[in-house]
Amino acid sequence: MARYVLKRLLTAIPTLFLIVSISFFLMRIAPGGPFNQEKGLAPAIMANLEQVYHLDKPLWQQYLFYLGNLLQGDFGPSYTRPGFAVAELFRAGLPISIQLGASALVLALVLGGALGIVAALNQNRAVDYAVIAAATAGSTIPTFVVAPIYQLVFALGLSLVPVAGWNDGAFPNRIGPVVVLMLPQLAVVARLMRGSMIESLRSHHIRTARAMGLSDYSVVIRHALRGALLPVISYAGPAAAALLTGSIIVETIFAIPGIGRYFVEAALSRDYTIVMGTVVVVAIFTILFNLIVDVLYAVVDPRVRYD
After folding, report:
1. CA distances from 140 to 137, 143, 185, 236 (A)
2. Does position 161 have pLDDT exceeding 70, yes or no?
3. 3-state secondary structure (DSSP) of residue 55
4. CATH architecture observed for domain 90-300
5. Share of the chain above pLDDT 90, in %
6. Taking residues 23-31, what's their average pLDDT?
7. Where are the domains positioned within the chain?
């Protein structure tokens, strides 16, 4: 297993290199720039800014300069936030995004998995239809619709929670972002768990376990659930990377100072370094969580071996 993990980590290096290279040139090729304003800057000021941030150099030199700094862990300075480095913004915003994403993911896996199991055990009954209907609605209604409805009903209407803001991570301020982030993931997990559990319950080894007189709890939890977890684990990897690096829409609507909100502001203002830094962080999380998923496969399913 250790050899397999090391091999995957080594193969991740060229993958990250390609992601960084493609993102860098796509950002630079697109028209406009971080210092293009409606009124425009004086030519002398524009020239000074481009010289300070090395934007006056040929594109290939800018690329090598950025790549050299990135290898040293330096994401560069922010173009639109004078005096701030991208690493400083990430140190402040990334922990907040991780807290929200981790909370939403854990709740989605626990609640969605439980609903999927209940639906599978009551297939083609009222409970099953209710779970399917709720999961379908949860996966089709976008977050930019759910978030304002939550604010209108629970914040403005009932005055139970704040409308937006972080307030140093106070619990009432966390409820809305976590719930809105969780709902789509919960719906997908419930549907995946239901389908995989139904298939697992129909397998031969489950029939053998029932014939041997094992209790329903032992059959479902100790035997059927283990095989049913594989599709959920496969989905949890990319979902974790997306959630833990922050939701762009949710953090913007709820005014959460996470990296998702920084990414939106940077994309609108063409702040190259923040956008590139976000891309790198998301890529790293995606690679790591996909590796964790493959390792968990071997833990859950004894038939999977990487040695």
Report:
1. 5, 9, 11, 19
2. yes
3. coil
4. Orthogonal Bundle (1.10)
5. 12
6. 81
7. 90-300
